[in-house]
Amino acid sequence: MSDTALRLKNPSVTLYGFHLCQDLSQEPEQLRQDADQLWQHCAKLSEPLGIPDLESLPEKILSPSSQTAIASRYIELLDDDDKTYTAPLQLAGSPLTVQVDPVKIHDTYALDLTLSCQNTVAASEFSHFNPQGCLLASNIQASLGQTLVLYGEPVGTPEEDRTLADACVDAFLQGTDQKPQFTASGQLFGSPIFAYDNGKEKPTEQCHVLVWLNRNPETLKLVEKTSLSFFNLLCCRSKILFAYDQARWCYRQTRGLYSQLEQEVQGFKALPTEGDTRLEQLKQKLTEMPSKTFEYAGYLRDMEDHKNAIATNDHNYDYWLNKICEHSLEDDTIKFLEDFLNQRTKRFEKQIKTDLNYLKPGQQLFDQMLGSIRGIVDIEQAECDRALEKALRDKEKADQAREKQLERWIALVGTGLAVSGISSQTAGKPVESIIDPKESLDCPSAGVTPCLTYSVVFVLFHVGVGFIAALIMNRFIKSVSK
Q1: Can you tell me whether residue 268 is helix, strand or coil?
Q2: Whose CA is closest to 428, among 405, 454, 446, 407?
Q3: To which H or E segment does residue 214 belong?
Q4: What letter would DSSP give residue 110?
């Protein structure tokens, strides 16, 4: 079909971006460090759209202290006077209008940015709404993801709607590497709607596009009535996808830890059965394993949190979907919105539950192994301490015995020397009588040989007296000791 046949009136593109601004670990009035990232990237659109005034958007956002002072789940963050900009881009001779509406929804910053043109354009001109791919998720960097809604009033027949929708998506993504697939179609508020998705899990890689072709005069009125419900519905959708992506990331990290800890189990079995080397290796494992098991438990806890987040937003998604259905027309078919709730969300919850059932027994195993290692280390350390204590006691006893033996020898030698000294001070007559019993010896007149003999015998005699005294003292000490 020729390009001129695929035309729309009053085309527009709306970007719904969602960014987490608060964590559970923070106080209610605190914001994440990267909370304003969504506004910063929105301000960068000033260059491709040619709107310098858009650069000052972050400074115009309501301050965090003012946000927390407002007790409301839904807070407008920008004055009405600062929401509308006119871009120099021209579509079919008409200027491009940019409407920016930043809000805070509970713990999430949300952006409603709409580019519109009041004229009739060819489907191929949708490329002008996305210069340099500036509206894609990779550039907006919304942590929870985003949805793009392409809107227009088709000029052709209803039979051409699907072809027209495909042409709008192709033109909008022209020059980019994004190729989302057609996933579903339906009818909302009397007008056909077509869904496209690239199936990516990571929010900054997703490309979720809805093409809404207005064929009913009631459509715009009903869109205005349900705009807040639709906004919240898409927010819940993004939160569900984000929680599932985070749960899968935690699963991959936990699987990696599971593999490491499984190797620790095998290494534990291969440890030597005795010796200091075994104790040192056990102590090393006792140092390394607690941090890994704690990290493992933390990922399991996070997976539980993400599962609860999916369940919560599942409930909220259903609530806002019912709000939209309250205004739907009789022939509306929004099965594609219901399928996300009934199929994908349920599959996410089931997958996370399966992952947890698979990984939780591992946590118990590692806790038990850590407890076993700690018990073995305590026992072996106690045995080593007792052996060391016994060795110290034995050494102390040996030292004491040696000390007593030394004291005894000192006492005996001292006794012998004392008795010898006393004996030597007595008269030399006993020795003289032994050498020459007939007459006394007069040295030195008696001569060298008799006198020398006399001196040697004199010394030996008194040493012998001391030795005998030492023997008597030794027997006495032994008797007293017993």
Answers
A1: helix
A2: 454
A3: none
A4: E
Cα-atom radius of gyration of the chain, to the nearest Å? Answer: 49
- Given a contact cutoff of 8 angstroms between Cβ atoms, the answer to whether 434 and 457 are in contact is yes
Cα–Cα distance measured from residue 376 to residue 382, given in angstroms and rounded to the nearest whole number? 10
Q: Is 22:30 a contact under the CB 8 Å cutoff?
A: yes
The structure tokens listed for 152 are: 């227009």
CB-CB contact of 279 with 380 (8 Å): yes
Question: Rounded to an integer, what distance in angstroms lies between the CA atom of residue 191 and that of residue 95?
Answer: 26
Q: Which of 253, 134, 142 is nearest to 202 (CA)?
A: 142
| Number of Cβ atoms within 10 Å of the Cβ of 218 | 13
Structure tokens at 255: 């699987």
Instruction: Tell me which residue of 225, 231, 194 sits closest to 316, measured CA to CA.
Output: 231
Task: Give the span between the Cα atoms of 225 and 399, in whole angstroms.
Answer: 98
- The torsion defined by the Cα of 265, 267, 269 and 272, in degrees rounded to 10, comes to -150
Identity of the amino acid at 287: T
pLDDT tens for the 482 residues of the chain, in order: 555 568 999 999 999 999 999 887 777 677 888 889 999 999 999 999 989 989 999 999 888 777 776 767 888 998 888 888 888 877 767 888 999 999 999 889 999 999 999 889 999 999 999 999 999 999 999 999 999 999 999 998 999 999 999 999 999 999 898 889 999 999 999 999 999 999 898 999 999 999 999 999 999 999 999 999 999 999 999 999 999 999 999 999 999 888 887 777 676 665 655 555 666 666 666 666 677 788 888 999 999 999 999 999 999 999 999 999 999 999 999 998 999 888 889 999 999 999 999 898 877 777 766 666 666 666 566 666 666 677 777 777 777 777 777 776 776 667 666 666 676 666 445 555 555 554 455 555 555 555 655 566 666 666 676 667 667 766 766 676 66
State the SS3 of 410-443: HHHHHHHHHHHHHHHCCCCHHHHHHHCCCCCCCC
How far are the Cα atoms of 151, 256, 274, 284, 361 from residue 268, in angstroms, in the given order?
63, 19, 13, 11, 18
CB distance 162 to 312 below 8 Å: no
Q: What's the pTM?
A: 0.76
Opening angle at CA 460, ends 454 and 466, nearest 5:
135
Q: Is 182 exposed, middle or buried (0-12, 13-18, 19+ CB in 10 A)?
A: middle
